[in-house]
């Protein structure tokens, strides 16, 4: 049922995610109490009262323009319960055939770009009119948000409400790795943590700054933790978890933690064998370096003892000094060339 005295508010040629089996395009129409998506398959209804978050993604740098709805309670689509539904329309070419591009002339390419710009402008007007009409009809009950591109990073698509999250932990944060993982720990400890993996390291500081701006607590560590075991331990023994400092074991730089406590916590929760092997290799390298330094000191001491025991006359000492000067000049020149080589690598 449409709002009384109002024209039909509709978006045509829309596709839906999650994708249905028939993959048909349909029509998204606004009604008094919700949205209805109609295609050759069964209609899909979304009540306004069931929408928790609404998003509008323009097509400035994207090939699709979309409206995304994160629901309070799941609905049935194609015999599956889902809490995220997206309606979208393709604007540009998803895939470009290089043979076709080479075959096009400059004039045809310019006409295609003009047509795509006109379509983007048209679609923007249609989508903005659609979601603004919803906002006007519902007041403050539903407000559409636009994703902030500067905070984007590659990863799987998901919607997570920060109000449901207690803290964030960064895993595999190390100069040895190119990627890191994010773990979102919810306030409801019975809810499994949400894990986002393989995020490039260049996005780490940007995400930390955003969490700081939200005054949100986060920690980081070099290893991957067994979260299923951790959450089970917390839910079965909550008082013991609080008595032992709560989440303080996630703070790798906590000055109040003793070495013995950290070792006990690591043995309890750290399960990555590959990372333990890396740690062992790094300790072996440090031990080798210390042996080399000790070896150099011992050789110097032996040289001094030998020089004291063996007496030499003045002529031999002067020849030895001239030879040492020549060697030092050669060493300095070699070091300068080596330094120049490093600069041009």
UniProtKB/TrEMBL annotation:
GO CC terms in record: FACT complex
Region described as Disordered: spans on this chain: 243-329
Gene Ontology biological process terms from the UniProt entry: DNA repair; DNA replication
Histone chaperone RTT106/FACT complex subunit SPT16-like middle domain sequence ranges: 143-221
Alphabetically ordered keywords of this record: Chromosome, Coiled coil, DNA damage, DNA repair, DNA replication, Nucleus, Transcription, Transcription regulation
Ranges of Acidic residues composition bias in the record: 250-329
Regions crossing the membrane: none
Subcellular location: Nucleus; Chromosome
SMART domains linked: Rtt106 (SM01287)
Pfam families in alphabetical order: PH_SPT16, Rttp106-like_middle, SPT16_C
PANTHER family: CDC68 RELATED, FACT COMPLEX SUBUNIT SPT16
Quaternary structure (record): Component of the FACT complex.
Function comment: Component of the FACT complex, a general chromatin factor that acts to reorganize nucleosomes. The FACT complex is involved in multiple processes that require DNA as a template such as mRNA elongation, DNA replication and DNA repair. During transcription elongation the FACT complex acts as a histone chaperone that both destabilizes and restores nucleosomal structure.
Family per record: Belongs to the peptidase M24 family. SPT16 subfamily.
Protein name: FACT complex subunit
Organism name: Monosiga brevicollis (Choanoflagellate)
